[in-house]
Amino acid sequence: MNEAIKITDMTYFYRGYDDSGLPVITKGVENVSLDIFQGEFVALVGHNGSGKSTLAKLLNALLLPRSGKIEVFGMDTSDKKNLFEIRKSVGMVFQNPDNQMVASIVKEDVAFGPENIGIPQKEIVTRVNDALQAVGMAEYADRSPHKLSGGQKQRIAIAGALAIQPKVLVLDESTAMLDPSGRREVIEIAKKLNKEKNMTIILITHFMEEVLYSDRVIVLNDGEIAMTGSPKDIFKREDELNKIGLRVPRAVELARKLNAAGFEIDPDITDEKVLGDKLCRLL
Amino acid sequence: MPIVVKNLNYTYNPKTPFAKQALADVNLTVNDGEFIGIIGHTGSGKSTFVQHLNGLIKLTDGEIIVNDINLNDKKVDYLKLRSLVGMVFQYPEYQLFADTVKADVAFGPKNMKLPAEEINSRVSEALKLVGLNEEEIGEKSPFDLSGGERRRAAIAGVLAMKPKILVLDEPTAGLDPMGKREILQLMAKIRAEQNATIIMISHDMNEIYENVDRVAVFVNGTIKHDMPTEELFQKVKIEEYGLEMPAMAVIKKKLSKIGVDINGRTVTEVFSEIVKAKGGKNV
To answer: Global pTM?
Structure first.
């Protein structure tokens, strides 16, 4: 598999000043080495302040490493001449859908990105249509984005990122403010883009249930990588997760408890429906 | 004294082409000391409804009585109403503004024109209640706190007004699992120690299920269901409203179909009930 992103021994810290005006340094991420492959679906989790968003911003050169290196499709993000190509390669969608809307009509909002990178008008139209099609919002092209639901707004924000035709899509807590069906909409789109378009997805989330859709989970703790592995492997390390402010999904927690208590229950069960059916046979 | 809402209607931008009915014939009574959850899809009217309770949205059609304050009266004492009903908005930490944590928490009581001594003791009390060490962080800038701490500092600012009724709009959104748990434990503590009535809006069905006594379901501006938590998730097809079933409720529903009734709603409670149900049988 080809590497989409290669991070080597990267450190980033924020510079600031304390109350008495003296310079202080706050850790962002430290000594991170990580390869993300093309077509991979990666979930990035960690407590508030663990460095997830810092890492996301380093991925498309919104921040530059203080030391170490990050390469996006072989392009060093610290090299200014790569900036344009890197921003085109890595699309980002953030938490609050309302802060990401720039136009008063959906299709114009989606066109904002390609317009900015100087795509010819004719192609913009095609790209906007394709992007809206991909997120299932084509029929809303002429509507006002402000009247849409949270999930629909985030799908428009994703379409805006897709119109740049990135190879990597970073969803930085893009489901945090949504209702359950909105969360599902966004996750379904991410899964579809990953499967059908082989798009590399980096999903940053606090919902441990959403981690289940990923090929690989990366757990950050205080700016460093604490664990990596498949969702099942990560969930096995429940105690370690609890120690760093995370918890496994409730169904997993119950399955593991029951297994430990001697029940004939697979401790790797992740779906409450499967667990419920299994219990019906046992009780 | 309870909260009584009768036949509440509300239309945004009335008598204009942009008129949109947000609430339609809402009826709800909340008793003293109750912990009630409000759920519903984005745009279902939840926030519009709770903003009526402390007069942030002026009552235009219907009846609202909060304790002994009748919002239909010609002259409503809004200062009194707002110290009675404490409102914690979504992402309240974005509303922190003062130089120090203490000054921020003192803002509410100062507006109530309380004597300086009383203000100080309320600030100390509120910080203690939310689990923040006054000595350690009282003089710090709110921006130097972690995400979870900032949220708790913002809640302390509301608690310092000693509201009898606490309304929280998605108080755990965007927090990591540990941060969520801290906020929910705090709410249980406030309820136990201050005998406060708590109204919580949330999109997280698991936390609704584990924490509140009763749930009101908003659908298109009206309360479609209002019943005890357990009854709601066992009887009502909640998925039809874009919501999802809590994990433990899924398992309990399946088990009750084969005649095994399980009490409790948290993973730990459900686990020990299952062990009990299994009883002498071989596992």
So the answer is: 0.91
